[in-house]
């Protein structure tokens, strides 16, 4: 039996707690005796989450059982944690077989010195702060979670579910993780190196209406001619003016935006359809399977066929 201990504190983000909690609870129901789930706070009293929800822990941290997996959620309270909490984590964190954070819980771990010399991530809005305040930590702002040895950190809010599913898959196998994901109506798990944002969210929304409309049009037509000259003509701008304006208003070049749109489109088709690789490469604007393969290897470190094998949910048994 693996004890999962969730650390609670006032102003914690409720979904950082309940998301992973539902995953591990689902695993325990699926395979009784696998996990013992406990929540603890410094004084053992109820804590009020940032959304106003009151959560009652099982015990104080001092009385909590030794954890196999120690999980630190985030939230406003994580950005200025009680020094007693960081002291407790500094002492007990290294004893856990797995140390996990969700969202700004990574800041708490960093303040306890538990991320020094490691790669980590956190919510996109706080990656720069984490890197600035803790230079011994290698902050990776793009992935939804990062695993470095026994320490795993995840990005904002729902990414804690992805990380918890990955941990359950490690413990109990893919079938168990898939069963839980189906119950929660989520992906089996998004790969850890998936970006925190879709292309449309990662890019700023352009100020000019023609550019905003063009952003949307690109996402709806990934298989069209999306070269700078063609896009500039659609936006009724010269290629040079268009490229400069698009980057200034969206924060990325037209080519980078197109690359992200095509990659996301291909991934969705690989995950959600039974279409062949050649068909998907054409529909996503790559033209050939080899071009799509190169794009996947460059961005994800895996080929399309392997990506599908790992991340497309299997057809449920009837």
3D structure, described in words:
This protein has 2 domains: 2-184, Class I glutamine amidotransferase (GATase) domain (Rossmann fold, 3-Layer(aba) Sandwich), CATH 3.40.50.880; 199-318, Orthogonal Bundle (Arc Repressor Mutant, subunit A). The protein contains 14 helices and 11 strands. It has helices spanning 14-30, 83-92, 105-111, 127-133, 159-172, 174-184, 199-202, 209-220, 228-234, 239-250, 254-272, 277-283, 289-300, 304-311; strands at 2-7, 35-41, 47-48, 54-55, 59-60, 69-72, 98-101, 119-120, 138-139, 145-148, 151-154. The strands form 3 sheets. Strands 5-2-1-6-7-11-10 form a 7-stranded mixed beta sheet, sandwiched between helices. The two termini are 31 Å apart. Mean pLDDT is 89; it is low at 313-318.
Order of helices and strands: EHEEEEEHEHEHEEEHHHHHHHHHH
Count of runs of 4 or more consecutive helical residues: 14
Number of strands: 11
CATH class of the largest domain: Alpha Beta
Strand content: 5-15%
Q: What is the count of structural domains?
A: 2
Q: Give the second-level CATH assignment, the architecture of the largest domain.
A: 3-Layer(aba) Sandwich
Largest sheet: spatial strand order? 5-2-1-6-7-11-10
Q: Uncertain regions: pLDDT < 50 for 5+ in a row?
A: 313-318
Shape: globular
User: Which structural class matches the secondary elements?
Assistant: alpha/beta
- What's the Cα radius of gyration? 22 Å
Q: CATH-wise, what's the superfamily of the largest domain? A: Class I glutamine amidotransferase (GATase) domain
Distance between the termini: 31 Å
The CATH topology of the largest domain is Rossmann fold
Q: Helicity range of the residues? A: 40-55%
- Mean pLDDT, all residues: 89
Largest sheet, in brief, is: 7 strands, mixed
């Amino acid at each position: 039996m693996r004890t999962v201990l969730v650390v609670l504190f006032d102003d914690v983000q409720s979904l950082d707690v309940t998301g992973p909690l539902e995953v591990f609870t689902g695993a325990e129901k699926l395979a009784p005796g696998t996990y013992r789930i406990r929540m603890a706070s410094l004084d053992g009293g109820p804590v009020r989450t940032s959304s106003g929800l009151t959560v009652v822990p099982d015990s104080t941290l001092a009385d909590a059982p030794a954890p196999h997996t120690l999980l630190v959620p985030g939230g406003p309270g994580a950005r200025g944690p009680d020094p007693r909490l960081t002291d407790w984590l500094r002492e007990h964190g290294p004893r856990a077989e797995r140390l996990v954070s969700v969202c700004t819980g990574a800041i708490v771990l960093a303040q306890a010195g538990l991320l020094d010399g490691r790669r980590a991530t956190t919510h996109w809005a706080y990656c720069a702060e984490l890197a600035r305040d803790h230079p011994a930590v290698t902050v990776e702002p793009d992935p939804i979670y990062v695993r470095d040895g026994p320490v795993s950190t995840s990005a904002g809010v729902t990414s804690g579910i992805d990380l918890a599913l990955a941990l359950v898959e490690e413990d109990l196998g893919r079938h168990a993780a898939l069963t839980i994901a189906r119950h929660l109506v989520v992906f089996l798990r998004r790969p850890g190196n998936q970006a925190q944002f879709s292309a449309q969210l990662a890019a700023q929304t352009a100020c000019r209406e023609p550019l905003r409309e063009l952003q949307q049009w690109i996402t709806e037509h990934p298989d069209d001619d999306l070269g700078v000259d063609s896009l500039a003509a659609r936006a009724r701008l010269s290629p040079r003016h268009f490229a400069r304006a698009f980057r200034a208003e969206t924060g990325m070049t037209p080519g980078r935006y197109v690359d992200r749109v095509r990659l996301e489109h291909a991934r969705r088709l690989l995950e959600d359809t039974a279409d062949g690789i050649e068909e998907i490469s054409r529909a996503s604007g790559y033209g050939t399977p080899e071009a799509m393969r190169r794009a996947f290897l460059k961005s994800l470190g895996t080929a399309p066929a392997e990506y599908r094998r790992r991340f497309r949910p299997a057809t449920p048994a009837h």
